[in-house]
Amino acid sequence: MNSLIKRVEKIQRETVDAKDKNKQLQDEGDVDAFTLLRRKIGLDVKGIKELIKERDEAEETMPGSVRTVELSHQIRRAIIDIKADAQKLQRMYDKGQERYTKKNKENEEKLKKLELEKEVCELVWSHISELELINKKRGGERNAFIPLDPSTSSAPKQLPDIDNDDFRTLRQNDQKIDAKLDIISQHLQETEQIAKVMGDTAKRQGVMLDNLNDRADDLDTKLENINIRLSKMIKDIRKADRFIIDVILICVLLGVGGFIYSIVR
């Protein structure tokens, strides 16, 4: 009886969800097929996340139950279906890109639209990868987000919802950040160039200082030799002066001695 009640509730919930989904898809009136499919995929992603959450809760309370198996089967089936929709969305973009290339005519508005559709396709595949990741981590800690581009991102980024236009704001913010990073990179290159010029100048000045030091060493050596010669010359001159003084003193002594001798005699 309980099983029957749960199935009835499930059918009722799915019917209501389908009505709500169709209402959300048609909210803005006439839209193109790409936008409708994008919104559908966005709503399906949310639905699969709810199924995964419900499956994990059921597994915690009733491990290995029939309900858990049914939910796991629904999740796998839903992921397969959403992959098919993603491939269809990708084909829409590829055809649009091919038509634009064949026309070989510049159209800025069309080009922006194609770039946005490409961004949407990448976002859809990122969400699918996220679903597969959290589906594998059953009953454990799950990542609520994965990086859009794991090869260029060291930290995970929050994935915006596919069924609204948040990803456009994210894309614009990323473009602004990229532009600022380009400016910073340019300034860094200029700074690097200035540092290189300063380094070359410092090297040249270092060579000049080395040459100046060598010349100063040569001058010190010459001055030292001159000092030695001057000292020797001074000593030689002092010896001659002493000889003359000695002669004069001897003469004085002889004169004094002669004077004393003449007085005594």
TrEMBL record:
InterPro entries, alphabetically? T_SNARE_dom
Asked if the keyword Membrane belongs to this entry, the reply reads yes
- Domain T-SNARE coiled-coil homology: where? 171-233
Keywords of the record: Coiled coil, Membrane, Transmembrane, Transmembrane helix
List where the protein spans the membrane: 243-264
Question: What sections of the sequence does the record tag as coiled-coil?
Answer: 1-28, 86-124
SUPFAM superfamilies the UniProt entry points to: SNARE fusion complex
Indicate what this protein is called per its UniProt record: t-SNARE coiled-coil homology domain-containing protein
